[in-house]
Amino acid sequence: MQLDDLLRLLDALRLRKARALLYFLLADRTPVHRTEKVTDLFWQNSDEHKAAASYRQAVKHIRRAMEGFPGFGLETNAGEVALRLPQSFALQEELAARLARPDWDPEQADRIRLLVDQTVQLEGISASFDSWLAITRANLLAALRQVLDRRLAETADNPGGGPRALAEFAIALEPSNESATRLLMRLDWRAGHSTRAIERYNALYAHLDEAFDQEPEAETVELLAAIKLDPTGGGRQRPQGDRAPQVGLSVSLLPAEGEGGALESMTNVLFADLRMRMARFREWSITEESAVPAQVRVTLQPFYLMGALRFFVEVKRGAGGQLVWSEWIEQPQTDWEYKVRILLSNIANALSVVVSDRSLADSGSGIYDRWLKAQALLDRWSPETEAEALAILREITEESPRFGAAHAELAGALNVRHVLLPGTYQTEDLKRDAMHHAIVAVSADPLDTRAHRVLAWCFCHLGYFDLAEFHFDQALTLNRNNPLTLASCALGFAFAGDLGKAADLAAETRRHAEVMEPFHQIYLAAVDYLCGDYAATARQCENRGGLMPTVGGWHSAALWRLGETEAAARRFDAYLADLRGQWHGQAEATDAQRLDWFLSVFPLRREEWRQELRETLEQASAARLRFLV
């Protein structure tokens, strides 16, 4: 299939949603899509009848346009839609392959750019589709950049026009491509155009500053300095040696000294934030000690003294443990943004690593510190801390509407508060409130895994399971290595009815057992139950009743399904007693009402599963009369 044909076909579609639908079917990895998911994705703000009519109109429009393109087809049957192409075709691989050909030319580059531009031109149809476009564009650019970087490396010493045209194309695709910018700066310098080389640096600096709030890499800054020191010496420039490899760091939290109480949650949050920040720098590579011996070890030890928190930070050489640098951080829970910037700069100086201070820019107005505090409050959850955390997050979203992380955290808290407060229920207003903040989070940062995961759960609670699955898939695409993402998506797909995918994700989660949190086991316990593995559910719920107010229900049901009737009856009786102690519903609630609450918590797509679970637990409840008299 020729790119010209594809571009002409897209251009022939005058209906914008028809073009978006064709591009989605062309670029998405899934060969067949459910019609319900497609209509939810493109017409999620329309009522069912209007969405169905618009979908049919778009399909007819695409089919009419395809009449002039033999071999193209759009199949719609049994509630599914699929795009049939003249030959096996994958857009990303096809564009990368064409870019890698020796006969590549600027005209073909224009065709590739036009297809990439579709990911920008089609924005605005829906928040979910916009996020898909952003992820698709990022993946496509990454694939093209890999080919371009290889070709540029192969032709870097060629003084002809080939490398220049490739580099110009690379920057047109991604203005942040520093390797291409450096190549053009060198070529301009050698040609005696040092002013043009400096202009290229300035354009790169402005783009990085505006888009990413960071400065160019050290190698680019060094090249600029060399050009300024010797503007006419480009032809005599010595070949630059390879950059030093990344410094491999291990970052660990040591056991605390003293009793921390409520400060322990704050400690965990601050440590996670420090580790995340350290992983952002190109010069540092965060490694797991078990996998690759670290060249440098960074340790953080909390000290809880008289209700106050202090951190002791050490940097040691990997071999022999030689101390390089150490520091005390007083009261890190206050003004953390400022203190962590100083900490990272000191670590970098100790390692003789160049660090851009601008990349650690202040979030302003203490917003970041308050967001961290809200996270810590939610981490050590109680009704009182939850209320304070929600109030903080709402203040942040009002003061800084584009701070997506706060919107995602708030939406996530609203999604689970009815689970953590037995006897409470999600109202439609709460569901819509959570949805609003989740959509803002995804819009603010379409590449944020957590935002997509939270939005997926919002769609689950509202009953839009196809859109939920779509965003669970986006979360997995963005970060499949995170155990929480895997466990949460496994549970989400289970509730949405895709038990095969849920089971595969659960198995993948277990391969990260060494870094799994205990509550991940409860997610997997529910997945195992819905998949019919009741023994696994029972094992994972054993002695974990304090992790979540729903554990006892799954445990009792699993035991009953295993035929352990007495154990199931006793476990359910203990579970009801636990609920009475945690109850936040009406004071005179009956055990039947407590069971109603448990069954209402889970957004199950298939109501027959909820009914089967009810019947199982009612049988376990009735059996208490036989075993507990």
TrEMBL record:
Taxonomy, superkingdom: Bacteria
InterPro entries: AfsR-DnrI-RedD_regulator, BTAD, TPR-like_helical_dom_sf
UniProt xrefs under Pfam families: BTAD
Signal sequence, start to end: none
Gene3D superfamilies referenced in this protein's UniProt entry, alphabetically: Tetratricopeptide repeat domain
Domain Bacterial transcriptional activator: 88-228
Name of the protein this chain belongs to: BTAD domain-containing putative transcriptional regulator
Organism in which the protein naturally occurs: Paracoccus simplex
Lineage, opening ranks: Bacteria, Pseudomonadati, Pseudomonadota, Alphaproteobacteria, Rhodobacterales
